[in-house]
Design goal:
Blueprint (H helix, E strand, L loop, with lengths): L1 H24 L5 H15 L1 E3 L10 E7 L8 H5 L3 E2 L2 E8 L13 E4 L6 H5 L7 E5 L10 E6 L2 E7 H6 L2 E3 L1 H5 L1 E4 L1
Parallel strand pairs: 2-4, 2-5, 5-6, 6-7, 8-10
Antiparallel strand pairs: 1-9, 3-4, 7-8
Length: 182
């Protein structure tokens, strides 16, 4: 009887230590990461992809995150179990030195500040590709959507010129809250 109690105590102790290790090992979600994740999710909800785009024939929105960004630690929690236009999210992570060929399957790509190189982004011109960049200041002609901070608030800039050229249409609600390039 005493041996069984000791065994149960040891198992309980090991379980508690393992749980504590798992909690410590998980990266802490930052406020910036949660905000960016929410923006990516809502962008997918308020964007209409052209019928001929790859997305219209898919059950998933293939979402790619390029570079190390706070969003990386929160995007999976943000989109878990959620859909946009009746499609689930399939999230893949890439380093900043990604080969553009690896991004061909993506339908929505989020670029961290460090990875938002104009040459890489301009090489991605397929129909239906929504590019989102975290930036310090707006730079028209790069990403379809730019996420920046102004007066300690997250803001959006939408390049409708690029959006239309790749077959993406934004809802009026989204256009109302963003800075625009027509």
């Amino acid at each position: 009887m005493i041996a069984i109690r000791r065994l149960l105590c040891v198992i309980l102790l090991i379980g508690m230590m393992t749980s504590a290790t798992l909690v410590v090992a998980q990266p802490k979600e930052s406020r910036a990461g949660r905000i960016r994740s929410a923006v990516v999710y809502y962008l997918a909800k308020f964007v209409r992809w052209e019928k001929s785009s790859v997305l219209s024939q898919s059950d998933y929105i293939t979402t790619c995150v390029v570079g190390d960004d706070p969003l990386k630690h929160s995007i999976l929690n943000t989109v878990a179990g959620k859909t946009a236009d009746r499609r689930s999210f399939d999230v893949t992570f890439f380093s900043s030195q990604v080969n553009p060929k690896e991004l061909e399957k993506c339908q929505l790509i989020f670029f961290s500040r460090e990875s938002a190189e104009a040459t890489l982004i301009s090489s991605l011109t397929k129909k239906g590709l929504l590019t989102v960049c975290a930036v310090d200041e707006i730079s028209w002609g790069t990403c379809v959507v730019q996420l920046f901070e102004e007066n300690n608030k997250a803001r959006l800039a939408i390049d409708n010129v690029i959006g239309k050229s790749v077959g993406i249409e934004f809802s009026a609600q989204l256009l109302d809250v963003a800075e625009l390039r027509e």
